[in-house]
Amino acid sequence: MNHETKDLRITRTNETRRTYDSLTLICINLAEESTIELKEKQTTMMKEQEEVVNCNTFIDLANYSSANTAIINA
Q1: Looking at the whole model, is its pTM more than 0.70?
Q2: Residue-wise pLDDT tens for the chain (74 aa)?
Q3: If DSSP codes are grouped into helix, strand and coil, which group holds residue 11?
Q4: In 3-state terms, the chain is what percent helix, strand and coil (to 5)?
Q5: How far is it, in rounded angstroms, from Cα 55 to Cα 37?
Q6: Cα separation of 62 and 73, whole Å?
Q7: DSSP reduced 3-state for 68
Q8: Is 50 helix (H, G, I), strand (E, B) or coil?
Q9: What is the 8-class DSSP label of residue 74?
Q10: How far is CA 33 from CA 10, 21, 22, 26, in A?
């Protein structure tokens, strides 16, 4: 193997490593962004679910109150 061929192989190997490293970083960043988005969606869903529970509790209390009023008026 002559000197030029050896240099070319080393250069290609280094370029391949840099490309691999860049792709690895891109994948890590995408995974982190996806995780953040997922956590934000989960937080939003939990808040919405809490609002539904609160609304249902209010409806239950209103129904209970109406039932008590009906019994008292009976």
Answers
A1: no
A2: 566 777 777 788 888 889 999 999 999 999 999 999 999 999 999 999 888 888 888 888 888 887 777 777 76
A3: helix
A4: 95, 0, 5
A5: 27
A6: 16
A7: helix
A8: helix
A9: -
A10: 35, 18, 17, 11
Q: Which residue has the tokens 């109406």?
A: 66
Q: What is the chain's length?
A: 74
Please give the distance of CA 57 from its chain centroid, rounded to a whole number.
Answer: 29
Cα 37 to Cα 3, 42, 74, distances in angstroms: 51, 9, 55
Tokens 């209970």, residue located:
64
What is the rounded radius of gyration, in angstroms, for the C-alpha atoms of the chain?
Answer: 32
